[in-house]
UniProtKB/TrEMBL annotation:
InterPro entries: GlcNAc_PI_deacetylase-related, LmbE-like_dom_sf. Gene3D superfamilies: LmbE-like (3.40.50.10320). SUPFAM superfamilies: LmbE-like (SSF102588). This is PIG-L family deacetylase. PANTHER family: BLR3841 PROTEIN, N-ACETYLGLUCOSAMINYL-PHOSPHATIDYLINOSITOL DE-N-ACETYLASE-RELATED. The lineage of its organism: Bacteria, Pseudomonadati, Pseudomonadota, Betaproteobacteria, Burkholderiales. GO terms for molecular function: hydrolase activity, acting on carbon-nitrogen (but not peptide) bonds, in linear amides.
Length: 256
């Protein structure tokens, strides 16, 4: 169990580490490059476990395109419906989000060229995945096969749902013989260049050709619920500014 002080140190508050600070860090270029073929070898199934609708695009929208191009078998697992992203919002009540956010994901995947991927929706409570970790672990273990490459959010990503998915996937992979690959999403927000809490020794950088990055950008525009301000509450967009730019570089980072 992580200490409370450690969890507090990874809180997602404010604007986070500016994108330009990351881009000016030479350490990014020192991360070894890896190919989609090496991440998911031929004949291997890729299982993408997304805590919320949009995490699969933010974290690995480039990889998804490359895997589709190389003919890899894909299974997408949506853990929650993302219906708690706008508390007390008249514009985005939970009932609307529960319907719209999965639709946004489907539109985004179609934009990437994945029109009808294999998709499993678990409908776990948004914001409450940590309390459902045993059930999630069992469900995942029943779906996984030996040799699968399982991609999910990093176990220390900062968001409780992201971390719970990482822990559940790690346990399910250990039980099934699958291989875990973790993806930082909100880690770019609270961490800083050279941060010793980040497992840089496990990091690999997947280069994204320009057309791949352009389609990833276009796919993220499908998430209007997350990318636009909420005039009914006066709150800013959930993912905007530096939060978005930190995940729209010409590479994606994976922790092996």
């Amino acid at each position: 169990m992580l200490a409370q002080s450690d969890r507090q140190a990874r809180r997602i508050e404010g604007s986070g580490t500016p994108d330009q600070v990351w881009l000016s860090w030479p350490g990014l270029n020192d991360i070894p490059a890896i190919s989609a073929n090496a991440l998911v070898p031929p004949g291997t199934r890729a299982v993408i476990v997304a805590p919320h609708p949009d995490d699969e695009i933010l974290a690995c929208g480039g990889l998804l395109q490359l895997l589709a191009a190389q003919g890899s078998q894909l299974l997408l697992i949506a853990v929650t419906d993302g219906d708690a992203s706008h508390p007390d919002s008249p514009l985005w009540p939970q009932e609307r989000l529960r319907q719209v956010r999965p639709q946004e994901s489907a539109q985004a995947l179609a934009t990437l060229g994945l029109a009808s991927p294999a998709w499993l929706r678990l409908h776990l409570p948004d914001g409450g995945v940590a309390g459902m970790t045993p059930q999630l672990r069992a469900t995942l273990a029943a779906q996984l096969r030996p040799g699968d490459r399982v991609f999910t959010t990093w176990r220390l990503d900062g968001h409780p749902d992201h971390e719970a998915c990482g822990r559940a996937c790690a346990a399910a992979c250990a039980a099934s013989g699958a291989t875990l690959v973790e993806m930082p999403v909100w880690g770019w927000h609270w961490a800083a260049p050279g941060d010793t809490r980040v497992p840089w020794h496990r990091a690999r950088r997947l280069p994204l050709p320009v057309p791949i990055l352009q389609r990833k950008r276009a796919a993220l525009r499908c998430f209007a619920s997350q990318m636009q301000d909420d005039p009914s509450t006066g709150r800013p967009a959930i993912v905007a500014g530096d939060a978005l730019q930190r995940l729209l570089h010409a590479w994606e980072v994976y922790f092996l």
